[in-house]
Design a protein that fits this description.
This protein folds into two domains: 159 residues, 3-Layer(aba) Sandwich (Rossmann fold), CATH 3.40.50.720; 117 residues, N-(1-d-carboxylethyl)-l-norvaline Dehydrogenase, domain 2, CATH 1.10.1040.10. Strand 2, helix 2 and strand 3 form a beta-alpha-beta unit. The protein is built from 13 helices and nine strands. Helix 8 crosses helix 11. The longest helix has 29 residues. It is of the alpha/beta class.
Length: 287
């Protein structure tokens, strides 16, 4: 039986650990807040008091943490206990620079590193319907694909380590400008004296709509703000995209314009709210 250590059982890590345990993997997990792991005991997930305790003798380690600094802090000691046969699947969204830094740390210890951020929020994570953007050595793919099959509707393999993180930045930048655009357009619709629902209804199913934008638009007008993707994570990802663009000599005017508004919403207590809720509030819309 393959033993998997899941380090980080927050919004995304908890369903990942749960689904793997239900699928028959031996799963041990660690989280800074122990209660979040202990709540998974009924699903067969074992609790570890320290990251290294979770990872000791594990075949695969999955990191799903807030940012690159958190991943590095957790893995500094954890890498020391991994066997050379272990695989580290890094699923957090950390950007290009951090991915390269973490891959180098794994290489120094002789640990196989797979860059595999995911696209999808809490609901697809619960349903095992994530999109995994994986990059790593071809030789390791057969070992990790049974894990990815449990967690995802599709795994997109890319050849160069780090390309998964590069594509994730592009996807989340697209997410950011769609959410901001929807919130501002709903605010405009209301300012024009129309029911904002009319706008969402008009674009649904047509060439101007994406399923994601329509879903977030409906959430905004209905006030349905169950947290699927917290604003603080969305803002972190948009910042990573902006910074990566700058490194490439490119500016992202839309992303640069929305970030101060999002940071202001975070400063006013909306950081843990769903991105749709927080952006709607910052647009002066309905809440």
């Amino acid at each position: 039986m393959t033993t998997v250590a899941v380090l980080g059982t927050g919004t995304m890590g908890a369903p990942i650990a749960r689904n793997l345990a239900r699928a028959g993997f031996a799963v041990r997990a660690w989280n800074r807040t122990p209660a979040r792991v202990q709540a998974l005991a009924a699903d067969g997930v074992g609790y570890a008091p320290q990251p290294a305790a979770a990872a000791a003798r594990a075949d695969v380690v999955i990191t799903m943490l807030a940012d690159g600094a958190a991943v590095e802090q957790v893995m500094v000691g954890t890498l020391e206990v991994l066997s050379p046969q272990a695989v580290w699947i890094q699923m957090s969204t950390v950007g290009v620079e951090w991915t390269e830094r973490l891959a180098a740390a794994a290489a120094r210890r002789g640990v196989v590193f797979v860059d595999a951020p995911v696209s999808g929020s809490s609901e697809p994570a619960e349903k095992g319907q994530l999109l995994i953007l994986a990059s790593g050595a071809r030789a390791v793919r057969a070992r990790v694909e049974p894990i990815f099959d449990v967690l995802s509707r599709q795994t997109l393999w890319l050849d160069r380590v780090g390309d998964g993180s590069r594509l994730k930045l592009a996807l989340n930048n697209w997410l950011a400008v769609q959410v901001e655009g929807m919130a501002e357009t709903l605010a405009l619709t209301e300012a024009l004296g129309l029911d904002p629902r009319l706008f969402v209804h008009t674009i649904a199913g047509g060439p101007l709509a994406s399923a994601y934008a329509v879903a977030k638009g409906n959430a905004m007008v209905d006030g349905d703000f169950v947290a699927g993707f917290p604003l603080r994570h969305a803002a972190k990802d948009a910042t990573l995209a902006r910074d990566a663009a700058r490194e490439g000599g490119l500016s992202l005017p839309l992303t640069a314009a929305l970030l101060p508004r999002w940071q202001d919403a975070i400063a006013h207590g909306h950081g843990d709210d769903d991105v749709a809720s927080a952006v709607t509030a910052s647009a002066g819309q309905l809440v």
